[in-house]
Amino acid sequence: MRITTKYFNSASIGESKNNNSLNKSLSKIVSYYEQFIGLSEVQKARNEVNQCESNLFQAQQDRREKQSEIRLVQNKLKEIHSELDRTLRGEDKYLRLITEEHAAIKKEREMMNIYEELETREREAFNVLSNKVRVSHEREREREERTKYWSLIGSLFGALLGILGTTIATELRMKHIREMIPSGQEIKPLLDEMVQMVRGSQGQILKVSEFLENLTKMFNLESPMLLNSKNKFNENNVDINGNDFIKILGGLKEQNSALSDQMNELKRLLNLERIIISDNEENKQNFVFIGDSMEAMLQQTERNIESKMKLQTLAFVVGSYAVLAITLPLFYYLFGNR
Q: Membrane spanning segments where (predicted)?
């Protein structure tokens, strides 16, 4: 039982020490912040104003008490005077009244001197209070101006940080996009392979063209070769009429047009290869071929990145202003009423 109590006591002591250190660090941070924005000076001026108000109140209280004492003495003198008027000079009472009158007049004179000193002290306290109030207002105005300028500087700095951050993010995205797009060195082997394919397909295209020309000549001129082929087909009981030949020729023409389109595309790729080779030799730079679809995709990506950058900048600036607008009145409410 004693061990558990010792353990709990040590734990509570350690926790209290941690809380004390945390409170000290927080108080230091708050004091630094108050000194930075000028709130400590304003608080000091307010404390001085409160002290001057208490001094003025005390001086007024002393003056009122002394004034009430003087009134009592004056009332006593009036009573003595009225009694002297009713007393004959030959009586013993008259001498006593004269002595009391002399003592009351002397006391009244002393109290009047003290009253004048208290009035002077009250006027001085009032003047000091007026000066302190004016100084407190000046300190408050200076603090408001300083807070306004620092909030403006903080807003500008936050906006610059937001723009810088969005610029860096955009640059990183563009770098990633550039890494995704193949460069001239990477596309050159593909172009070489395409050129080899073009060179290999040129022979096939020539053979197909010669075959089409031969068929056209045979169909138009009715050469002996065509007649022999017809007789041969008739001997083998194969029925091929003119419509079948027209269909065959139409299919061959379509293949010829498709092959021609492929040849044009391959020629364009050859020209592109020549441009890349010439640019590499002259400028030592890489050339990237981007098709229409890739270009449209890049433009759309650029527009999306630009819109996101604008939205992020606007959101950051609005958030910075909102944070400043919330935190500054909160700090003023928490620490300004001390």
A: 149-170, 313-335
